[in-house]
Design brief:
The protein is built from 2 helices and no strands. It is mainly α.
Length: 92
């Protein structure tokens, strides 16, 4: 009989006595409590990570918009200069 068979027999034996049931109930409650604590902590950490990620995305969008506006403004200035140069050549 392997270790799982021995564990199964021990579990069945423990559930047949009052002390065994109390022990198993206590152990189950401890495992559930630990699981709930881990869930709460991980939810909190994941919430913080999500918030930080959203902040970084917002910063990148703002920088991209600023760069786009700067490029558009530079392009507009260049095209205005080119139009003036063309007009000057035509007038001459």
């Amino acid at each position: 009989m392997g270790p799982w068979g021995i564990a199964a027999i021990a579990l069945i034996g423990a559930t047949t006595t009052d002390g065994g049931r109390k022990l198993l109930r206590s152990a189950a409650k401890s495992v559930i409590k630990a699981g709930l604590i881990v869930k709460e902590k991980s939810s909190s950490v994941l919430g913080e990570i999500k918030e930080q990620f959203a902040d970084v995305v917002a910063e990148v969008k703002a920088e991209t918009n600023a760069e786009s506006a700067e490029h558009a403004e530079n392009g507009h200035k260049k095209s205005a200069k080119a139009e003036k140069a063309t007009a000057s050549k035509e007038d001459a």
